[in-house]
Amino acid sequence: MSVVLVTGVTGFVGSHLAAELSRRGHRVIGSTSSGAGLRSETPGVDRKVVLRLGDEVDQSIGQGIDAVIHCAWDLRPGSERANVGGTARLADAMQHGGVAHQLFISSYSAHAAAVTEYGKDKLTVQQDMLDRGYTAARLGVTIGPGGIYQRMTEVLTRHRVIPLIDGGRGPVPIIAIADLARAVATIVERRLTGVFNLFNPEFVPLRDVLNEMLAHAQRRVLLVPMPAGLVLVPLWLARKIGLNLPVHIDNVRALRANRGFQEHSDLPAFVSRPMTLTEMVRAAAAATRGISGRGLR
Q: Where are the domains positioned within the chain?
């Protein structure tokens, strides 16, 4: 049994990684950015601590820890200093404390042609981790009860007419949260280094993802094809006035920037039969119902 620190452990990806590692017999310590995170239920986590990106880091924090998974990330615009500098300081402290393995949760949007703050900052941290001899996992769109997939679900639930950017023709990389957790846990257990692309080998058009979600929910929604250029300005104005929409301008910009990249998938090396899109959507819906049921008790 090893001791693994998962930062951002109360988040969508972090919480699922913690549960998978615990299931495999590892002791999981989790960090959260607030006291509320300490009080929240996080299955599989032995102990939680408050650790905010950007704060000073105790150099002894890594003592007794075998591996670190860096999931923590501030999604608010203008958080480059906290995300890039804060992750670097934490990696330094862990290295000073003798931690043998560090893995950074990166994104498919982290590439040389990235146009968003998110993609550029993820790429910077990813490269820093690789330069240190550690590991980065580039995730596709993660399908499960949280993250951008949850926001997509909320949009489909609340609206009857939805603009479909560029007709939804652009292929997107997808991965089930369960497959992601298994793959990352295996990488940590084997102490593998380098960058790993974690998404299904076959990319899927965005319209297929939305139609699968609608079919499973048995919901009728009109998807209206619309050129991305027509929605960029309204989304830009919404950001300027502080209007929090479920779809942000950076989501659209990243979707367009990622089209020129269809890189190989490393997922089959860790998951022999990745879940299909239909299986992912069903599993996400079942997990969401389970979370709602626990909340009602």
A: 3-143+172-202+263-275
Q: Which helix (H) or strand (E) holds 240?
A: helix 228-240
In whole angstroms, give the CA distance from residue 151 to residue 157. Answer: 10
Q: If 0-12 CB within 10 Å is exposed, 13-18 middle and 19+ buried, where does residue 39 land?
A: exposed
Q: pLDDT tens digits for 70-87?
A: 999 999 889 999 999 999
Task: State the amino acid at position 185 in one-letter form.
Answer: A
Which class is domain 3-143+172-202+263-275? Answer: alpha beta
Laid out side by side, the sheet with 27-32 consists of 45-50, 27-32, 3-7, 67-70, 101-107, 135-139, 194-198
Nearest to 31 by CA among 110, 79, 93, 124: 93
Q: Which two tokens stand for residue 209?
A: 């993802």
